[in-house]
Amino acid sequence: MGYFTTENPVFVTWMIATALTVLKVMGQGWMTVYRMMKAGGGYAAPEDLRPGLINKAPDPQQLEVNDYVDRSRRMHRNDLENIPAFWAAGLIFVAVGPPLWLAQALMYGFVAARAAHAVAYATARSHEVRATFYTLGSLIVMAMAVYALVAVM
């Protein structure tokens, strides 16, 4: 059996965790768009002030920072800074054939840590709360990378 096949439950675990985190990244982008439309502002670029179907009456104030929109934008940026490392580390982790229990604990643990981080960020919890979930996810990604590195050395 090859490592990168749906017959390998470790690879299936990575596929599920990756699909969930892809949905998180893409969904956060859509959440930012929803918040911009709801707030009627928080736009990011001067060309966003051109009249269109959605923004019929542009106003320069729409370019001002809107925390409701910007919070979602910061969450999206945070996802883009962290989740791709999971995708890469998870793939090399799969390639070295870890035990299923370890793969599930780490990969689903990462998904749970990112979900908790998102809830903490969306509900304006303190930096310490967010940092706890970030740290957990970061340590998981680093553990997968170190495990793969040790396995190939």
In a few lines, what is going on in this structure?
This protein is an all-alpha fold. The protein has helices spanning 9-39, 67-95, 100-122, 127-152.
Could you explain the architecture of this structure?
Helix 2 (67-95) packs antiparallel against helix 3 (100-122). The protein has helices at 9-39, 67-95, 100-122, 127-152. With 153 residues, the protein is an all-alpha fold.
Give the class from helix and strand content and strand pairing: mainly alpha
Shape: elongated
Summed over residues and divided by their number, the pLDDT gives a mean of 94
- Estimate the strand proportion: under 5%
Biggest β-sheet: count, sense, barrel?
Answer: none
Q: Using the CA coordinates, give the radius of gyration.
A: 19 Å
Low-confidence stretches: none
Total helices: the number is: 4
Care to count the β-strands? 0
Instruction: Compute the separation of the termini in Å.
Output: 23 Å
The helicity comes to over 70%
Order of helices and strands: HHHH
